[in-house]
Amino acid sequence: MIFIITNDIVSNKEREDGRKLDEIRPLKIEAGILKRADGSAYLEVGGNKILAAVYGPRESYIRRLLRPDTGVIRCRYNMAPFSVDDRKRPGPDRRSIEISKITAEAIRPSLLLERFPRSMVDIFIEIIEAEGGTRCAGITAASVALADAGIPMKDMVVGCAAGKVDGEIVLDLSEKEDKEGQADVPVAIMPRTGEITLLQSDGNLTEDEFDKALCLAIEGCKQISEVQKEALKNRYEA
């Protein structure tokens, strides 16, 4: 899906944390921080702290998953028990399984897996601290880790969300805004082509509000994409 931005989405209004409606939280990305992974990344956005590690491509020991014409990817998204205020029960739950599947589907279109038949790429995303928007942040971190692993890609995938809070369309919802807001629209794109690889919507939005939220999320993705590139540049310049 290609989406062309036509709306004016800039506003001078401020949110509770002092950000403008179209402003993302403070963002930091580092590549190549885990020596034992083939590729890795660390991401902070707002109060989120996320590690991503990639292993592969390598031959799968699970024969039923092998495909003779292409490689396959598996993704494991996990929130640490201490990542949220109310201690989370260790291990996978319905939400983490769903986000693992969504993340794999969002990233798969960017990978040239046909170059690695009968092989597997494993992606691990660990949420160390959570403060809203972890699925999009996890996709962003995982894509940097894949690039760090040297896996051929059409483009890095970057995720960002927009939503509706107090009747206003805002970018990059915090945890409080996510819980108290009226809608949430997570998006992931390949910035070079504009192809959308993830689009979800939770809540009530008019058609105009949805278009505005989508435009805003895409603009946020483009901003984050520049930080992804800078992280890889810093990694290999060092």
Summarize the structure.
It contains four helices and ten strands, in the order E-E-E-E-H-E-H-E-E-H-E-E-E-H. By secondary structure, the protein is of the alpha+beta class.
Give your account of this protein's structure.
It is a single chain. By secondary structure, the protein is α+β, with helices and mostly antiparallel strands. The chain has helices at 94-107, 134-148, 175-180, 207-237, and strands at 27-31, 39-45, 48-59, 72-79, 119-129, 158-165, 168-171, 183-190, 195-199, 202-203. Helix 1 (94-107) links the parallel strand 4 (72-79) and strand 5 (119-129). The protein starts with 26 loop residues before the first strand and ends with a helix. The model is unreliable at 1-11 (pLDDT under 50).
Strand content: 25-35%
CATH domain fold name: Ribosomal Protein S5, domain 2
Number of extended strands: 10
Main beta-sheet annotation = 5 strands, mixed
Write the layout of secondary structure elements.
Blueprint lengths: L26 E5 L7 E7 L2 E12 L12 E8 L14 H14 L11 E11 L4 H15 L9 E8 L2 E4 L3 H6 L2 E8 L4 E5 L2 E2 L3 H31 L1
Helix pairs in contact: 1-2, 2-4
What descriptors fit this protein?
alpha+beta; 5-stranded mixed beta sheet; disordered N terminus; globular; Ribosomal Protein S5, domain 2; 238 residues; single chain; 5-stranded antiparallel beta sheet
